[in-house]
Amino acid sequence: MPFPTSRRQFLQAGSLAAGTLAGAGSPLAASPQASESSGSVKPIRFGMVGIGMQGSGLLETSITLPGVECAGAADLYDGRHTLAREITGNPKLPVSRRYQDLLERSDIDCIVAAVPDHWHMRVVVDACNAGKDIYCEKPMSHAPSQGFAMAEAAARNNRIVQIGSQRVSSALCARARQLYHDGAIGDVNMVELSLGRNDPTGAWEYPPPFDLSPSNLDWDTWLNDAPKIAFNPERFARWRCWKEYGTGVGGDLMVHLISGMLFTLGWNEAPRSAQALGGIFRWKDGRNMPDLHVVLFDYHGIPVYVRLGLSTETPELARFMGPKGLLDTTGGEIRYSPQTGLDTAPSYYTSGFERKMRDEYVKQWYEKHSVPPGREPIRQDTVFRGDDWDDTRPHLWNFFEAVRSRRPVAEDAVFGNHAAIACHMANESYFRGKPVYWDEPSRAIRS
């Protein structure tokens, strides 16, 4: 979740935006307040896979939604079995180290998964093959090819997959989208996305659980297809720091910014190219993912500039620029700043005219453009404020309502894959030290 200093609250009441995802025809579900279960509708029962920092919040939020129940939880660390029972208030909640146990149960309708990136494909594909719909945290994949395998599994099994970049279900993001498509800034000609943190927690230096050991954590299974290494509590808690398990600031922060941009503009595609610079400037703790990452993307000819850093706190900003003005979106508000695109004074180029010609030009300009005193134009910014941009509750509600109704979700596997590909391209450009390009026919990143 992208925020500068501390983790945002998971339990936030928020209204779910009504609208559609361009190119996907995805209607957003009504808000929880507008369609609470009367008790006659069979509840949606979900299994929770991964009850760590993000998963505990998803579990806590999900069980506050009407008509939604947790039927079981799985995690490779036994301490989180206790946590799941504490959160649900059910000391007899079925728990397991094997997420497959949840997939085998006929009384579980769907899965909510918050596991490290290098586990996403396996959990999503297994869930779809088992006939379960699944909500999976962002970024969708750990490598580009995985995203296509996940999308194909969803389509093959007619399963609903929602990826967890929450802002696409927020009322603020829906308003930004409406403003753009109503022509507020004209056709976008550039986008700037930026976010900075400046603290150890923001840089993923999380404290491992005090009791973590090979006796209460299935370490070999947790490694999945990553290289086998000795038990390491820091790698378990801080997996985002290493490319073997995570995708760095790209998959943790950039994917939110990219997803919000795609939704706002109505795009649903991978970028043509990416050129990145960065490095490990502050957090020299053994990590191999950059703590500063600057990227320039090409989206069908539109430049998209992204800056992510873990050494200087800066506000989250998505700036959309067009000939009619600016649309600035932050964590809790949208600011629309209109521009006329017209001269407000005689052109300074005429300072190179001889005096008589310049005086004549100035006279003609004011005759054409002057306004009566007291009626000078006033330019006014318009500000929209709302609940947290990354409002988790409506995004989860969007998923559970889709499970119930079989309607499309706000962020399906195709959309989630396109957002993830941008992050993979940013990482590949950084590690290769050169621009990279997306080759659609081969579904691969090329130098």
CATH architecture of the largest domain: 2-Layer Sandwich
Widest sheet: strand ordering: 16-15-14-13-9-12-11-10-17-18
So what's the overall shape?
A: elongated
Task: Assign a percent range to the helix content.
Answer: 25-40%
Question: Any idea of the CATH topology of the largest domain?
Answer: Dihydrodipicolinate Reductase, domain 2
Instruction: State the order of secondary-structure elements, H for helix, E for strand.
Output: EEEHEHEHEHEHEHEHHHEEEEEEHEHHEE
Range of strand content: 15-25%
The helix tally amounts to 12
Please tell me the total number of domains.
2
Q: Which homologous superfamily in CATH is the superfamily of the largest domain?
A: Dihydrodipicolinate Reductase, domain 2
What is the rounded Rg? Answer: 24 Å
Main β-sheet description: 10 strands, mixed
Averaged pLDDT:
91
